[in-house]
Write a structure and sequence with these properties.
Its EC number is 1.15.1.1. With 290 residues, this protein is of the alpha+beta class. It contains five helices and nine strands. 28% of the residues are buried. Bound molecules: copper (II) ion and zinc ion (ZN).
């Protein structure tokens, strides 16, 4: 420290921090005050402070509390750089875990025994358990400009009686038929899809009831396209009974079985992935408090 940088009133002109007599002693006192401050802050640790404490013991994390001492500021800047690297690494790990959790399933729709008169692919993507399922697809060979009932049926069997083998609508909670937006609906009720002038229907919907895990898991079940429009459970008079059961959507013109597309690992390992993801999230939260 050059003498010119210190005023006669005990202030370091470079840092603006007060100095007390001999620099060595002042640095020691400053460090002591900082340590006492940290101890006071640690008086009643919360859950996240416990995590913060764990992180502060990591070699990459280094000194964790902002210091008013010039000597420790340099150390803090270095540790800040280390912490940014650690933070980025943990964020990358979290993203990788999230990507690993994503489940994708796919169904090829055909008319069993009749080639590809009506055909298309429908995909189902769930980013993590409990999240809505994104349903997307393209089906061609349809009559133009019409609505067609579109459902998940209970069985993934199209072998013996064509689309009839898929059974009824997938309905694990034993509810009445309805629209996808209704509370009272079958899990498999996806409403209608509409064809354009060229007989092609584009599907893009986000469904909060479908799932690729748990009770509402549609993996291995059937996708069915009907020849008529689904009345979404709103039929009256003579139509009411059929409306509450199937939506009066008529015969089945195409169907397929929903199968695994991604990941190829056993899906039962997802519970461990969720636990790992939660731990990584807690560590990130703790680091942000430091
Ligand atoms: Cu159906
Ligand atoms: Zn239904």
């Amino acid at each position: 420290m050059k003498k010119a940088l210190q005023t006669g009133h005990g202030q370091d002109l470079r840092s603006g921090y007060p100095v007390e007599g001999h620099l060595g002693n002042s640095a020691g006192k400053c460090e002591r005050r900082e340590r006492e401050k940290i101890e006071r802050r640690r008086g009643s640790p919360s859950f996240l402070h416990v995590f913060a404490g764990i992180i502060s013991q990591l070699p990459a994390a280094g000194h964790s509390v902002y210091s008013a001492c010039p000597e420790t500021q340099l150390k803090s800047r270095t540790s800040m750089q280390s912490r940014v690297v650690t933070f980025a690494t943990l964020a990358a790990v979290l993203l990788a875990i999230a990507a690993a959790q994503e489940r994708r399933a796919i169904a090829l729709l055909t008319v069993p025994g009749q080639g590809l008169a009506v055909s298309g692919n429908v995909s189902f993507v769930q980013t993590r358990p409990g999240e809505p399922v994104q349903v997307q697809g393209l089906i061609s060979g349809l009559r133009p400009n019409r609505n067609f009932g579109f459902h998940i049926h209970e069985k993934g069997d199209i072998s013996t009686k064509g689309c009839t083998s898929t059974g009824g609508h997938f309905n694990p909670q034993k509810r009445q038929h309805g629209a996808p937006t209704d509370k009272e609906r079958h899990v498999g009720d996806l409403g209608n899809i509409r064809s354009d002038d060229g007989g092609v229907a584009t599907i893009s919907m986000l469904d909060p009831v479908l799932s690729l895990e748990g009770e509402n898991n549609v993996l291995g079940r059937g996708v069915v396209l009907h020849e008529g429009e689904d009345d979404l459970g709103k039929g009256t008079g003579d139509d009411e009974k059929g409306s509450k059961a199937t939506g009066n959507a008529g015969g089945r013109i195409a169907c397929g079985v929903i199968g695994i597309q991604h990941p190829v690992e056993p899906w039962s390992s997802s519970a461990a992935q969720v636990a790992l993801s939660s731990l990584a999230l807690a560590l990130l939260s703790a680091m942000m408090l430091l």
